[in-house]
Amino acid sequence: MSNSTSSVNTAFYITTKPKSNPHFNSTSSRFITFTSPNHHTNKPWNSWRSRRKSLSTVKNVATDQQSVAAEKEEQGVILRRDSKSIASNIKYHAEFSPSFSPEIFDLPKAYSATAQSVRDELIANWNATYDCYEKTNMKQAYYLSMEFLQGRALLNAIGNLELSGEYAEALSKMGHNLEDVARQEPDAALGNGGLGRLASCFLDSLATLNYPAWGYGLRYKYGLFKQNITTDGQEEVAEGWLEMGHPWEIIRHDVTYNVKFYGKIAMGSDGKKHWVGGETIKAFAYDVPIPGYKTKTTINLRLWSTRVTSEGFDLDAFNSGDHVKAFEAQANAEKICYVLYPGDESMEGKTLRLKQQYTLCSASLQDIVARFERRSGSSVNWEDFPEKVAVQMNDTHPTLCIPELLRILIDVKGLSWEKAWNITQRTVAYTNHTVLPEALEKWSLDLMQKLLPRHVEIIELVETELLSAIVSEYGVEDLELLEKKIQAMRILDNVELPATIKEVFAKAEVSAADTDEEKILVKLDGKSDKVEPKDKKKNSKDKSSTKKKTFFKPDPKQPKLVRMANLSIAGGHAVNGVAAIHSEIVKEEVFNDFYKMWPDKFQNKTNGVTPRRWIRFCNPDLSNIITKWTGTESWVLDTEKLAELRKFADNEDLQAEWRAAKRSNKIKAVSYIKEKTGYSVSPDAMFDVQVKRIHEYKRQLLNILGIVYRYKKMKEMSAKERKEKFAPRVCIFGGKAFATYVQAKRIVKFIVDVGATINRDSEIGDLLKVIFVPDYNVSVAEVLIPSTELSQHISTAGMEASGTSNMKFSMNGCVLIGTLDGANVEIREEVGDDNFFLFGAEAHEITKLRKERTDGKFIPDPRFQEVKAYIRSGVFGSNNYDELMGSLEGNEGYGRADYFLVGKDFPSYIECQDKVDEAYKDQKKWTRMSIMNTAGSYKFSSDRTIREYAKDIWNIEPVELP
């Protein structure tokens, strides 16, 4: 990437201002607008002569405009950002910030120059925001996440800056269409699913609402992977999103931190413990501006990249021919940020993942601490740290920031354990995103001991604090109860108890033995008599021969583990779930013991999505309709205004406009599907979409089995019968299966096979199509979601924490079919029962249903058996689906017994789909349902979620720039 910050400053910004000028505006008056050369043709700006002419013009304009700007600044006049000045700015970057050859001004070059032009605008606001935070020294929130799934930045940035029209006009004059230019931008490969998309929505809302906050993540060179779909199913290749540069980022060469691994702990002459030896890499900061909507506030996403200094290159080894050894240190450092979630089947993979997590935590915490010290000036009071800093851990991946903050405070800053522990607990908070026990992170203690020896010592201290709190809470009267609580809540699993806690048990056992000398007999009337042992010698002999219970004896055959979720709860002051039902499961099941001890720590913060990207920018047709019928555009910031649409849900004019907007979006999706898959689909068919990470609990398998059953029934009918029975559908899937998740990849393969058969069946034609869209990401979602009519959110009840795509679909007028799981519960409450297609078992029934299966009491529905037999008949090709179908059979065993209850919910699912067909045939009714979904989606704005975090967890206030 070519950074041109210095050029930008000299060419576009007045870097000095008269101190006496009371009208100086830090943003508007520093921006220099340029007069565009007169081009009256639509030909691209690409000839050498015109290029040199424009260069001359830009130079002259820059000089003239600086003079004009200074004069206007003295007069207190705000300079206007119009299409002519924007065009000149874009041309300047094509000349002076080139990432492409000078001969032509094609789309990739137009994108690069346009992005850098927009970045100029952002930098002014970005710097002003940063300066304001530095000067006011208010409390700031820091959001740590392994994923930030941003999507394309160009249209979002100019939309938030309210310059969409000006940039479109400027590019039109230069021979290009803004949307064509925007499509040149690759999605930033910094995330995969809902976790990363939520984090990006939160940053958008934080900036829009003027909250002081930053995001911290890792700058993955290759992302997760790029997904190709072939006849063999999913194929993974490296994602090359950085190959053409990333104009939105700026490397901060002055912001680097050492991150250490391995080594040992030694006691220094100062009496303190020191982490010595080992391997040290450097984390370098890359900053990405995050603009708010209709505000100057532009916050920061700081991404860390890793490498070693030039000393890490072994010149002697290289010259002697051992080139691999020469690059070894560099390769070990750089690979930390190569791939999101590297495969962890091997020890090398596990080690790399743990290195990633620690790099994020260590670099971010060092940066946060340095900022706190700088803002504190000459008098640093560490007790103020929680009053100035809030750290939010997005899931358990950043959990190591707890022992890392403790390490910095104790080992580097010299604080006592008591003070450091108090400060850390008041600073850190944890968001839980899963109720799946197997998904709660656990790390090998041996691996962590090897990689992060000092942190293991600190975690042992945290464990001692936690166990002491448990003993204090439950006492020692009932040792079995105490043991049960400690087993459930402790951080270190299958590890000897700390000496102080072992002593508690030893004393309690001795005390229990002593009281056995004098038993108490409780009579029915409540009185008691002492019962003396008849033969004290015999009694004593009996006691000595009785085998004592041994508490917490580790099993040498089982691994020693560090439970990251338990560490997160113990080390922070708040734990939140991300939907009402999820938060209740967290409190009542997953972490019930913690909840009973610390009920005030637990909260709910139902997720949300930004209405800017997910309606305003990705669905302009619908946005214009909403603005027209609500009478205001303020719904973009105040989504409660969407509820006004309920008053007009039966209005025929609104319904006609609504259907026209949906059809327009469907036509765009038809073109996209043809381009990416080669399949032609009809815009007159219902668009039925399930796009999300491929996982068994999300039940893409249930969806495709329903489609297979539908297809089988169609084949058994006459053309007339099937037309009367079924509404035409395009069933669209999208999402990535993790590279080592074999069963998920089998599901992808099966969907592709089913689609290949059905889509070629001329007898069925446009009545049914099955599409798997490759490489699903934010940009694909921005095409598919506005076009969707039925959206599937069909996870096994009680297993989806929240979901956010369900919110995006509902906002865009999509009707949902789903279970009572995650945010579906709240969406259904808001949009109304009649506007949501509900099926399936409920969360409180799942345990009982699984037990029935284990006991052999489950009787599968004949239709479920029928569809499995149809698949095995070979209708979808010669592929063997035994492993896939076998997972749905049997009563117990890993990979069998239908753990996710596909067979149980199949009958109610296909019956619910019949109701969908019936409703869709009545387009007036369906359109009303669609309108009611958008009207009821107002609650699910990330603005609402962020306000709740800011008030209830972070205790931060908005800071509006002057």
Average pLDDT taken over every residue: 89
Output the structural class.
Answer: alpha/beta
Which value, in Å, is the CA radius of gyration?
31 Å
Distance between the termini: 33 Å
State the assembly state of the protein chains: single chain
Question: What is the makeup of the main sheet?
Answer: 9 strands, mixed
Unreliable stretches covering 5 or more consecutive residues: 1-80, 517-528
Helix amount = 40-55%
The number of helical elements comes to 38
Report the strand count: 24
Strand content: 5-15%
User: Which strand order do you get reading across the main beta sheet?
Assistant: 5-8-9-2-1-10-11-17-18
Question: What features would you describe in this structure?
Answer:
With 962 residues, this protein is α/β, with parallel strands linked by helices. It has a nine-stranded mixed sheet with strand order 5-8-9-2-1-10-11-17-18, sandwiched between helices. The longest helix has 30 residues, at 107-136. It is globular.
Feature tags:
disordered N terminus, nine-stranded mixed β-sheet, alpha/beta, 962 residues, 48% helix, 24 strands, six-stranded parallel β-sheet
Strand and helix map with partners:
Blueprint: H1 5-12, H2 48-74, H3 83-96, H4 107-136, E1 140-144, H5 154-160, H6 164-173, H7 178-182, H8 194-208, E2 213-218, E3 226-230, E4 233-237, E5 250-261, E6 264-267, E7 273-276, E8 279-291, E9 298-307, H9 315-319, H10 323-326, H11 328-334, H12 347-376, H13 385-388, E10 389-394, H14 401-412, H15 417-427, E11 428-431, E12 442-444, H16 445-451, H17 453-474, H18 479-489, E13 492-493, H19 499-515, E14 519-522, E15 528-531, H20 536-545, E16 561-563, H21 564-571, E17 574-577, H22 580-590, H23 592-597, E18 602-604, H24 611-617, H25 620-630, H26 652-677, E19 686-691, H27 700-715, H28 719-725, E20 729-734, H29 742-759, E21 768-773, H30 778-787, E22 790-793, H31 805-811, E23 815-818, H32 824-831, E24 836-838, H33 846-854, H34 862-872, H35 882-886, H36 902-921, H37 923-935, H38 942-954
Helix pairs in contact: 2-3, 3-4, 3-6, 8-38, 12-14, 14-15, 14-17, 16-17, 17-18, 25-26, 26-30, 26-37, 27-29, 27-34, 27-36
